[in-house]
Amino acid sequence: MTQWQREWAYQKYWVMAHSQQHYDAIRQLASNNQWSATKEARLKQLLAEAARQPATKATLTTAYQHVWGYFKKRCTTAEKQRYLALLATLTPEHDLLGPFLRQLALKYQVPYLLSSRLLMENKAARET
Questions:
Q1: Using CA atoms, how far apart are residues 103 and 107, in angstroms rounded to an integer?
Q2: 22 with 74, same domain?
Q3: Can you give the residue ranges of the DUF1722 domain (predicted)?
Q4: 15: closest CA among 67, 70, 59?
Q5: In terms of domains, do 116 and 63 share one?
């Protein structure tokens, strides 16, 4: 995996949680697997713009539903019920779902998610 592919893997769900438009723009930027200094500069610009977009209930829901896809076939019934309950009460100001999904990523050892900015920032926010 190239450096920009690792960067996109790290940023992907975090960007989605902030802005679907920026997520789509970065996906398009990365679509042909050819990278350049111009694309690198555009990626940095799009990430900075996405950071200025506050997460909304809708964008968080979309991102977390994508993350949930890694667990939905192997989770327990109790975990599914907990996910649905946390999803129902999710707001950007009251986000207990991100930390729960991080716990599941640890439990089920999903490396892609464990190196995801979205879940790692949830960890950092809880530890401060």
A1: 6
A2: no
A3: 12-119
A4: 59
A5: yes
Contact 49, 84 (CB under 8 A): no
Rounded Cα distance between 55 and 69, Å, is 20
Tell whether 46 and 85 lie within a shared domain.
Answer: no
Per-residue pLDDT of the chain in tens (128 residues, 90 and over written 9): 588 888 889 999 999 999 999 999 999 988 877 788 898 899 999 999 999 999 999 999 999 999 999 999 999 999 999 999 999 999 999 999 999 999 999 999 999 999 999 998 755 444 33
**Predicted TM-score of the model (pTM):** 0.88
The answer to whether residues 116 and 63 touch, using CB atoms and an 8 Å cutoff, is no
Q: Establish if 100 belongs to a structural domain.
A: yes
- Measured between its terminal Cα atoms, the distance across the chain in Å is 32
80's torsion region: left (phi>0), alpha (psi -120 to 50) or beta? alpha
On whether both 43 and 72 belong to a single domain, the answer is: no
Please indicate, yes or no, whether residues 73 and 41 belong to a single structural domain of this protein. Answer: no
Q: Which structural domain, as residue segments, surrounds residue 70?
A: 57-121
3-state secondary structure of 75: coil
